[in-house]
Structure formats: structure tokens, C-alpha cells
Amino acid sequence: MAHKFNVKDMHRLDSPERRKMLPPEETLIKAGLKKNDIFIDIGCGIGYFSIPASLIVGSKGKVFALDTSSEMLEELERRIYENKIKNINPILSESYKFPLGPNSGTFALISNVLHEVEDKLSFLMETNRVLLVEGTLFIIEWQKKETERGPPLEDRLSESEIENQLEKTNFKLINSFPIGDFFSAYISKKISR
Ligand SMILES: C[S@@+](CC[C@H](N)C(=O)[O-])C[C@H]1O[C@@H](n2cnc3c(N)ncnc32)[C@H](O)[C@@H]1O
Q: How far is the C-alpha of 121 from the C-alpha of 58, rounded, in Å?
């Protein structure tokens, strides 16, 4: 069984330390998120990326924030209200069936979620379904090395495992790069269904 993030630790998803290790706005801009994009944040948690994404895509863009945890979504809703945000739609999702139509988004993010998912191919095929052809898939994962915090080493994904799964689910890897000392970023494009 893959290690699951404990919802009781949700405060850890937004701390000054995390903002330094994984600066959300800067990371999204570097990955190519832009004004008017339709952004799908799969496993959004408390909205660490959804909230800065809502500012980047602007009032003509949109954010679909999906999670399987209603507690995470409640915290996101609190933050949306507090920040008077109008363009984020929080959605309670099933693990392998997202409540969105085909070709719904131009840009999807899977940040620190893939290592938690048992059936990664079904999850990535479902991600493929909700993205437009040529849409961007941005994956952020813990690097596969021992660190004091983060998921156990055996659950972490190597670069070649991620590349292999992307290929099997009809994504073309365009670029990958480290983010600080702990995370890796993978940018790919949907090539077909
Ligand atoms: C470690 S948190 C990361 C949250 C956020 N992406 C971030 O980087 O701050 C993982 C989140 O993924 C959610 N999750 C796990 N499996 C999921 C799935 N199959 N579909 C949607 N959400 C999922 C969990 O409920 C949790 O909120």
C-alpha cells in the first residue's frame, strides 16, 4: 500500500519552509502556466498551487481544484472565501474518475500525489481524458532519495518510472528539471487519447 498523506498534517502543505523549497507561483510560471489557461489541480490539497494559479490565469481563466478528501476541500473553500477568489471551482473527486468532461483543461498539475496513487496508469489515463490535445501536464514529485521528511523511499518514483508511465498514457515528455534539493518537475504534452 502506497503511503498516504495524513489530512491531520494539512498545515504542513503551507509553511514558510515549503514556500522556500517549492515556491508555488514561480514554479507554475516556470512550467508555462499563463493568463486564460483552464487549470486542473488534481489532488489540490488545501490549494497551495490552486490559489496562485487563480491569479495567473486571471478572470477569463479558470481553476478546477479536485481532491478525494472533503477535509482538504473545506480548507480550500475557507481560503477561497478569505481571499475573495472567484475563479476556483473545488470538486470532490473519485480516485480514478474525475467529475469533468473530456478536454476540459489546457493545463493539469499533479503535485506530490502520484506516489500516493496505487494504479498510476488508470490515474494518468483519466488525466489524459480531461486535458485537451497539446495540453500541458505538469508533475511534481519527491526525488527518489532518502530525506528526513516526505514519503518512504520505496514509494518514490524515479525519473525513468515517470517517463515510462507518461509514454504508456500518451504524454510526450518535453522537459524535466529539479526544484531545489527535494523535488523534480516533469513537463509533458498530451499527444492523443
Ligand atoms: C501530499 S498532498 C499534496 C497536495 C497539493 N497537490 C500540494 O502539492 O500542496 C496529496 C493530496 O492528494 C490527494 N489525493 C490522493 N489521491 C488522489 C486521487 N486519486 N485523486 C485526487 N486526489 C488525490 C490527497 O487527498 C491529498 O490532498
A: 32
pTM over 0.90: yes
- Please name each of the domains of the chain with its CATH number: 7-190 (3.40.50.150)
If you compute the radius of gyration of the chain from its CA atoms, what whole number of angstroms results?
A: 15
Of 88, 113, 117, 142, which is best to mutate to test ligand 1, by the most ligand atoms within 8 angstroms of its C-beta? Answer: 113
The answer to whether the CB of 50 is under 6 A from ligand 1 is no
* 17-32 pLDDT per residue, tens: 999 999 999 999 999 9
Give the position, in ligand 1's atom list, of the atom nearest the Cα of 69.
25
pLDDT higher than 90, residue 53: yes
Task: Tell whether the model's pLDDT for residue 149 goes beyond 80.
Answer: yes
* Closest to 63 in 3D by CA, of 81, 49, 46, 75: 49
Place of cell 473553500: 77
pLDDT tens for 67-76 read 999 999 999 9
The single-letter DSSP state of residue 189 is E
The SS3 of residue 166 is helix
